[in-house]
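Anyone else keep sequences and structure tokens together like this?

Example one:
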Amino acid sequence: MTDEERYIMQGRARDEAKKAKANMATLRTSLEEYSEELASLKGLIAKFLSDPVAKAADGRPIVDHVNAMQQKLSKPGFTEMTFEYSDVIRKLRKLEEQIKDF
């Protein structure tokens, strides 16, 4: 392989790594936000379990809030997102190894 070919391949690998990092950051942010929402639901469920007939601050039964939040948090595509995140990490690590080898 000539130096020019190596330079071109290295540039492509760096471009792919940059795109993978951007994709990884987007997916990570989505997963972190979802985790925070789940933590909120956990707290709400704890309140519900301590007093299932309690009213929320807005006067509605707490059970309505628990159910509404749970339905909101049923995230379609969650499984695909987690697989994509791990695939992006795997690809990024492979690209970083290729870049080191140049």
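And example two:
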Amino acid sequence: MILKYTYYICIISTRHASYLSKDKAHHAGAFFYLHMKYSGVPKNINDLTNQLISKGLIVSNKPDAEHHIFSTGFFRFKRYSSIFHIIDGKGDYTFIKDTHFDFIEGVYHFDSSLRIALFEAIAEIEVAFKSILNFTMTLKHGAHWYLDPAVFKDKFTKDLDFNYESSYDKFIVGLTKECNETRESYIKKYKDYYTDPALPPSWLIMEILPFGTCCKLFQNISEGSTKASICTHFGVDKRIFETWLFTLSYVRNQCAHHHKIVNRIFMFPPILPNRKDHMFLKEGRIVDTDSLYAVLCIVRYTLLNLKSKSFFKENVIDLIDNNPQIQLDRLGFTEHWRKEAIWQ
């Protein structure tokens, strides 16, 4: 099978990205391209399981192992097994001595359960954030505040891209399309009754706006005092809260698409308060902010500020206690994490 895309790699330093389309690569400068043919051959479950065994994995029940790999996917299974790999100088791997199939299956189920707990917790935060954003903005700027460009920063409403569109223009175009195509009865009812404004009030719009879009709207609100008043409900200042929103939106999407969350570096790392009077973690200054532990901490702290009645803390601690094979230091947990107030 020939790869669908050919990559053109620019060899002259430009402001463009490393990977360019053919016409853009011409404008960027001299370039060359690599046309490579994929030679991988599909293998059946028996062959794939034998491959793992040949690498040193101990499989005590081969039919069960084959069933798990078949229902999970070999590539997905290998990603979970990577923490038990020893990589040689050629990039090939073998398993650490005495690595059992059950160890990897346990990591997989731990990840799955933690992903569900995170998704539910972030969903609660998302709903609360949208509600607080809506109440704050509508009471100050009216039911259709999001239609007023003056509410937002100039870079959001006036900076144009190559198609002479601002980010705000694209937001309105996308929202209009969503409202025209949605099957939600409350949106259709508004459009049936009203023509001005063409789009519904904020409290209806918040129900269909993705979390990430709401985060961008918040980021681009021009009034610092308004943003600050929203942030008081979450226990941190606006500079820090903005980073938390994008972290939570990213992690929520990873969870929704069933991506692995253990033993990975997270994009959009949150900023943690480091001033003594604002820190909520005693070991906050040594926490790796792109780790899973940092994500768990900001979720827990946010839920506390929202006076949530969820069992997120209990779920996380139970999962850790019931999975002693999980290496917490590889997830970014600090040595004395259990002594932190948020986990008490």
